[in-house]
């Protein structure tokens, strides 16, 4: 019988250019502690290696997350490092030969995890260096989330219309605070058109009647807070982070299914292949300095697609363009 216990202590702690985190390693059904590092230079290289795949994602494919992305990346990275050890890797290679799994998923998973770690680091650096911004970060995040959701709903219902489809394509090409505000204004105007609203109101799953009013309000806050033309790196890295998170979840979820199937009789796969969100929730959290958000986990509920509920309320959702 395999003894259950939390999946290590996964709080990353920066030490110079290296982040160390404690992870649980599963070997022949037992769980023992180990230590793994993410080096900033390697993380940057991983990010560049994954950039093409990130940029190829469509807006409707992007995933939101309400836990600290670096903690999620640490869990996924630790699983990949462990499963790349020869004995465990051989199991996945046999699955791949049988056509039940692609071993490239395992080989790519470390880069996907380090890409998330790096993008989050750059986002935080940009926030620290930004000056003069008077719009709270949570409102900017909400604006990105609202824009993504409204784009998705409109593309689904009226994207094939020659005129409206062209307007939506123009909105998707925008970036920066000024474009974000303009996009929200245009999306709100589309939502309020009688012919469009008549189609959207039948969508009980995705359509939110108050999105048009919220978009107008957020656009006004951005225009007032930032002035005309003020842009920066933060919004660019927010968008890239969301893309990196989306890819990481894809690779990890596929690998997790294969791992749970392969080792279900020899170890507690709920521990050795945890939900990324559950693992971060159960990990010890760092006490944040006064006035700063902590690295602690969010509440229940896992991430969803654009605009959907994320992983609780502990973190601002990772959303972007």
Average per-residue pLDDT, rounded, comes to: 76
- Percent helix, as a range, is 55-70%
Shape: globular
User: What structural category do the secondary elements indicate?
Assistant: mainly alpha
Give a quick account of the main beta sheet: strands, pairing sense, barrel closure.
Answer: 3 strands, antiparallel
Fraction of residues in β-strands: 5-15%
Neighbour order of strands in the largest sheet: 1-2-3
| N to C succession of SSEs | EEEHHHHHHHHHHHH
Contiguous low-pLDDT stretches (5 residues minimum) are 1-34, 285-316
**What is the radius of gyration?**
21 Å
Number of helical regions = 12
Strands, count:
3
Word description of this protein:
This protein is mainly α. It contains twelve helices and three strands. Strands 1-2-3 form a three-stranded antiparallel sheet. α1 (40-55) crosses α4 (103-129), α4 (103-129) packs antiparallel against α10 and α5 (137-158) crosses α9. The longest helix has 30 residues, at 233-262. It is globular. It starts with 12 loop residues before the first strand and ends in a 39-residue tail after the last helix. The relative contact order is 0.20.
């Amino acid at each position: 019988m395999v003894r259950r216990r939390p999946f290590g202590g996964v709080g990353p702690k920066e030490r110079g250019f290296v982040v160390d985190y404690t992870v649980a390693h599963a070997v022949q059904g037992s769980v023992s502690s180990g230590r793994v590092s993410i080096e900033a230079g390697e993380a940057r290289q991983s990010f560049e290696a994954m950039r093409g795949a990130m940029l190829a994602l469509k807006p409707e494919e992007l995933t939101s997350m309400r836990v600290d992305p670096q903690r999620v990346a640490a869990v996924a990275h630790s699983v990949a490092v462990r499963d790349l050890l020869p004995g465990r890797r051989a199991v996945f290679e046999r699955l791949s030969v049988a056509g039940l799994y692609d071993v490239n998923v395992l080989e790519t998973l470390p880069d996907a995890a380090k890409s998330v770690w790096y993008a989050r680091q750059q986002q935080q650096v940009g926030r620290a260096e930004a000056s003069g911004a008077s719009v709270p970060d949570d409102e900017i995040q909400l604006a990105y989330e609202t824009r993504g959701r409204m784009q998705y709903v409109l593309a689904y219902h009226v994207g094939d219309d020659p005129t409206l489809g062209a307007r939506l394509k123009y909105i998707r090409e925008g970036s920066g605070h000024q474009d974000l505000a303009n996009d929200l204004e245009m999306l709100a105007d589309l939502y309020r058109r009688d012919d469009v609203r008549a189609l959207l109101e039948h969508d009980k799953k995705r359509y939110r009647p108050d999105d048009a009013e919220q978009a107008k309000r957020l656009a006004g806050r951005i225009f007032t807070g930032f002035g005309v033309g003020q842009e920066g790196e933060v919004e660019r890295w927010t968008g890239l982070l969301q893309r990196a998170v989306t890819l990481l979840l894809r690779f990890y979820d596929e690998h997790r299914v294969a791992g749970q199937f392969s080792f279900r009789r020899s170890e507690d796969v709920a521990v050795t292949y945890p939900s990324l969100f559950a693992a971060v929730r159960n990990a010890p959290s760092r006490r944040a300095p006064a006035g700063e958000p902590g690295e602690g986990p969010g509440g229940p509920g896992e991430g969803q697609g654009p605009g959907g509920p994320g992983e609780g309320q502990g973190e601002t959702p990772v959303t972007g363009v």
